């Protein structure tokens, strides 16, 4: 949902190559246009256009810009088509102020009308363009850049992380945020700002997290942060332990396949959170109810949590889509633990729900990105240890979320057997990954398909939903995940000759019933791909194709392992279709608008 960066170097070196390097790392946040603004020789220099980063760089040579400080942006269009005019940075009429922005200014139309009435002329269709105009107007009234930005945020409504530079007050970047992420990095060679840490990992590991309404002023000598009353705030400096290599492809063709291959490590590292999770359980105390709130893949991880917690710990558990939370949240109380699962920790729908839940209940965030908004607003935090995830499709963060939930449920229920079983999961995942080439070959068989169904029962039902989501978001093929027993209540009518149906059928209590559902679709002509236990002869005779999983993977832990072949299938089908799995159309990694 757009990414911003800014940098001011301590020496008089050119900042453009560094800005370009940093903003390139945020391409997963938006890839329909890119732009940079630097300052040199008394004026602002801007290069921007629509298109992917490498295309725009090829035509504009983005690293060739003068000046030792500047700002940059990648865009995921909300207001106005992807076009050169709508690309950021945006400027006022006289090119005296340049701004990059991530978020949405909800009242921009009223502001724009008013400014037009005062004689301002606009060039773009964006909500953002009002910001440089307002800053310039307030500077013309005698305010310095910081106070012009302060006055501007008094006028605009909505979500924003903003960085601004001005010719009238050079050698300084002023940044602020509300409901959109912004971090400030203290590097050896200069000072940085960014929407997300992968942008600046190479340059700065000591991070400051500005709070809503605080204003950060970056210059050659350092960073100061002022609160809304202009008082200097003594910000805590946190050090990120991610390495720059973690945010690189390291020889893989795409981030997605790299991240799929990192899943055993993600599980292993997240299992180290056991003590922290036990402490949280002890501190939270008596619980009458648990309520998960999440979106997308994180919602599917939450559904697995419901099955686990209800069956192991007997605590009633709901799962609510974050965007629907406000329509059903009035039954929470102080004996409810509301659990927010989010890779990014910045999803707007989840943050809105968190603010509501904080009023009545204890809240827990299960989040991958350290220092993100959910980690700062929830009462308790479990940090999943997946490392940075760049591919838009969540993979390793999903298994890391699941690992945290499994630990949480097993510790809540003092289920030693499950705790021991979890230790074997990384090896089971690695065994699936050994079948990479076979799965790649198999995926070619489905090039004809326009629709896919995914079926699973019990613990395997969320896996079916997640398998379908992976397929549709990156390959653009329609995929439906269904509870296997629900198919006969309607969707069975859609099963026809040759329709691929992926059946998730691990050994266990639900095996027989799932097998009946497999036969139902098979007898109607479906092309059945079964994900089941190695050596299952009955499955071999019924399915058209099988991906075999170690038979020691019990039904209860199957979600952590059976999802891996589904991710690989989605990935390879996407390559067959000629699409980029890391940058699916219309999507962004972090959804900071409601
Ligand atoms: O950062 P979050 O986990 O809160 O994001 C939630 C969804 O936007 C996310 O899971 C989305 O569905 C992914 N693209 C799935 O691969």
The shape, in one word, is globular
How many domains would you count in the coordinates?
3
CATH homologous superfamily descriptor of the largest domain? Aminohydrolase, N-terminal nucleophile (Ntn) domain
List low-confidence stretches: none
Structural category: alpha/beta
For this structure, the CATH topology of the largest domain is: Glutamine Phosphoribosylpyrophosphate, subunit 1, domain 1
Which percent band covers the strand fraction?
A: 15-25%
Give the helix tally: 19
Radius of gyration: 25 Å
Q: Which sequence of strands runs across the widest sheet? A: 3-2-4-1-10-9-11-14
List the ions, cofactors and other small molecules found in this model.
5-amino-5-deoxy-1-O-phosphono-D-mannitol
Major sheet:
8 strands, antiparallel
Helix content: 25-40%
Task: Tell me how many strands there are.
Answer: 24
Query: What would CATH call the class of the largest domain?
Result: Alpha Beta
CATH architecture of the largest domain: 4-Layer Sandwich
Report the average pLDDT across residues: 95
> Distance N terminus to C terminus?
11 Å
């Amino acid at each position: 949902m757009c990414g911003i960066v800014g940098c001011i170097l301590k020496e008089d070196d050119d900042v453009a190559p560094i800005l370009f390097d940093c903003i390139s790392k945020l391409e997963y946040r938006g890839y329909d246009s890119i732009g940079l603004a630097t300052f040199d020789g008394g004026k602002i220099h801007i290069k921007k256009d629509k298109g992917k980063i490498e295309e725009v760089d090829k035509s504009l040579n983005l690293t060739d810009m003068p000046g030792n400080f500047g700002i940059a942006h990648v865009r995921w269009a909300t207001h106005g088509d992807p076009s050169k005019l709508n690309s950021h940075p945006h400027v006022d009429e006289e090119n005296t102020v340049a701004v990059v922005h991530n978020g949405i200014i909800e009242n921009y139309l009223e502001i724009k009308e008013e400014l037009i009435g005062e004689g301002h002329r606009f060039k773009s269709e964006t909500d953002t363009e009002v910001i440089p105009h307002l800053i310039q107007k307030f500077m013309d009234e005698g305010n310095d850049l910081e106070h012009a930005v302060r006055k501007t945020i008094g006028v605009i409504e909505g979500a924003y992380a903003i960085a601004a530079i001005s010719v009238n007050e050079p050698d300084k970047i002023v940044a602020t945020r509300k409901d959109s992420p912004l971090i400030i990095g203290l590097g050896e060679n200069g000072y940085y700002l960014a929407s997300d840490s992968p942008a600046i990992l190479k340059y700065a590991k000591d991070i400051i997290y500005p709070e809503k309404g605080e204003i950060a002023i970056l210059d050659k000598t350092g960073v100061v942060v002022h609160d809304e009353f202009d008082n200097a705030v003594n910000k805590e400096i946190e050090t990120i332990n991610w390495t720059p290599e973690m945010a690189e492809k390291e020889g893989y063709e795409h981030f997605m396949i790299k991240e799929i291959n990192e899943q055993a490590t993600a599980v292993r590292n997240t299992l180290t959170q056991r003590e922290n999770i036990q402490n949280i359980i002890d501190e939270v105390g008596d619980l009458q109810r648990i309520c998960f709130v999440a979106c997308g893949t994180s919602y599917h991880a939450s559904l697995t949590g419901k099955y686990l917690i209800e069956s192991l710990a007997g605590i009633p558990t709901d799962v609510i889509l974050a965007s629907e939370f406000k329509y059903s949240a009035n039954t929470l109380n102080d004996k409810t633990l509301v659990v927010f699962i989010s890779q990014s920790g910045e999803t707007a729908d989840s943050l809105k729900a968190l603010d509501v839940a904080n009023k009545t209940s204890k809240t827990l965030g299960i989040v991958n990105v350290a220092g993100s908004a959910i980690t700062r607003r929830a009462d308790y935090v479990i940090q999943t240890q997946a490392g940075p995830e760049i591919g838009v499709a969540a993979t390793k963060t999903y298994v890391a979320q699941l690992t945290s939930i499994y630990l949480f449920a097993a510790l809540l229920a003092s289920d030693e057997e499950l705790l021991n079983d979890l230790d074997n999961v990384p090896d089971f995942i690695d065994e699936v990954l050994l079948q990479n080439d076979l799965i790649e070959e198999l995926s070619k068989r489905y090039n004809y398909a326009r629709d896919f169904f995914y079926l699973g029962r019990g613990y395997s039902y969320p896996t079916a939903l997640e398998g379908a989501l992976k397929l549709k978001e990156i390959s653009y093929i329609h995929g439906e995940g269904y509870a296997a027993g629900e198919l006969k209540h309607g969707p069975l009518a859609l099963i026809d000759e040759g329709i691929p149906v992926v059946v998730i059928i691990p050994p266990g209590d639900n095996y027989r019933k799932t097998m009946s559902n497999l036969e139902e679709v098979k007898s109607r002509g479906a092309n059945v791909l079964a994900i089941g236990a190695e050596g299952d002869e009955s499955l071999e005779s019924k399915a058209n194709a099988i991906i075999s999983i170690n038979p020691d993977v019990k039904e209860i832990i199957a979600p952590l392992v059976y999802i891996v072949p589904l991710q690989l299938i989605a990935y390879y089908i996407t390559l067959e279709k000629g699409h980029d799995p890391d940058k699916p159309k219309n999507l962004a990694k972090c959804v900071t608008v409601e």
